[in-house]
Design a protein that fits this description.
Blueprint (H helix, E strand, L loop, with lengths): L42 E10 L4 H9 L6 E10 L8 E10 L8 H19 L2 E2 L2
Antiparallel strand pairs: 1-3, 1-4, 2-3
Helix pairs in contact: 1-2
């Protein structure tokens, strides 16, 4: 106990003036809007492209994302391959593209249309081609 250790009780007092508490500083920069959740199921499609070895995967990913900024919510690289079955000086990059509808469930025709845009955009940006 405190008496056994030779410590005496000390009284401490303070006042808090609520009107003088500083307001938190606003962060400089953009404030992100609240996440808009969709009631519709996302759709994922996989693509594999043959590109020159010096084409960075990030270039392919950016091109795919730009194909439809309203529906495409994610593009993920899941495989890189060079070797048997791929021409020398080339590599295969495989991506998964996630479409998130917000107004209605996508029809097969709408999914095919976005897929065609992804293929065209990637081929234009990278000089590659869809791997068959």
């Amino acid at each position: 106990t405190s008496q056994a250790l030779g410590v005496r009780g000390v009284a401490v007092g303070f006042e808090v003036f609520l009107e003088r508490i500083p307001q938190p500083k606003a962060k400089a920069g953009k404030i992100r809007p609240a996440a808009a959740l969709s009631a519709f199921q996302p759709v994922s499609r996989d693509f594999a492209f043959l590109v020159a070895e010096d084409v960075p995967a990030e270039k392919l990913i950016r091109a795919a994302k730009g194909a439809d900024k309203n529906l495409i919510t994610a593009v993920d690289l899941f495989d890189t391959y060079a070797g048997k079955g791929v021409a020398p000086g080339h590599k295969s990059l495989a991506i998964a593209v996630t479409l998130q509808p917000t107004k209605q469930t996508l029809t097969d025709a709408e999914i095919d249309q976005v897929s065609a845009k992804v293929i065209a955009q990637v081929e234009k940006a990278t000089g590659g081609s869809l791997r068959g």
